[in-house]
Amino acid sequence: MPRRSRSGLAAAAITGALAGAVARAGYAGLTRRPPGGPASWARKNHRGEPVTLLEGPAVAAAAVGAAALAPGLTARGRTALAIAGTGAAAFGCYDDLAGSGARRGFRGHLGALAHGELTSGAVKLGGIGASGAAASLVLGGPPADIVVNACLAAGGANLLNLFDLRPGRAIKVTLAAAAMLAAGGLTIRPGTSAAPARAVPARAVPARAVPACAAAAPAGAALGLLPADLGERAMLGDTGANALGALLGMATAATLPRPARLAALAAILALTAASEVVSFTRVIERTPALRWLDMLGRRPAAGQ
Length: 304
Description:
The protein has 13 helices and 2 strands. By secondary structure, the protein is mainly alpha-helical.
């Protein structure tokens, strides 16, 4: 492996390790002194057992902070990541604390809005869309790129949240998406033009390693609290899942060429549309390989 490639992977590893350490420290601090008291963050998981949502703010803060320091990105790229992640976390937190959960999915929230009911979920969807658009405008580029990049951030935030239904699932999807983003960077040919914010000094992080560095922030933060999530002591909630998804979407926008971004957006839209008519949990449970991955590290289901 070339020396510069090794240095790029090392930079990604350091970014991820930093994010994980900050996430664990933040979670420990929040559980000792939870804002508003423990009851504000207490929920029941799929087993009906108590968990805390404090994992979400810890993961979001660590991921956004590490993304703002991601090697290889310009100041504009880092700012775009920070805006997308912070906006998604803030509106996700609002829905976590104010939402009832009675309405779910685009159809549920938009249907309620059509009947004059403004749900917390609808506020969240609008807010994440607005923060994704703001981040995309900061990132810059032609109008078509601005639209695609905004949709990547908002769509990524919404899609990842759809997987936060079982212990560890959303984090495993985060790790898989980060790996695909890093692999996508390896396919960039020298001299290929990517997003406007991906300007890398020749003696710093090599261009092919920049997507890995950007992806390492959400991946590292999520991995840092995977044990608490798998142990069913805590869950990401909307705060954490929306933030991780938005960061992955904006990292894609800031580091990959347009064809790769369009492919990623098509996948996000297809999966989001599918979620309105099929249950991801049922599909996973009926597919042996997916079920094995989903159960990896988890407590067995009741009766097993």
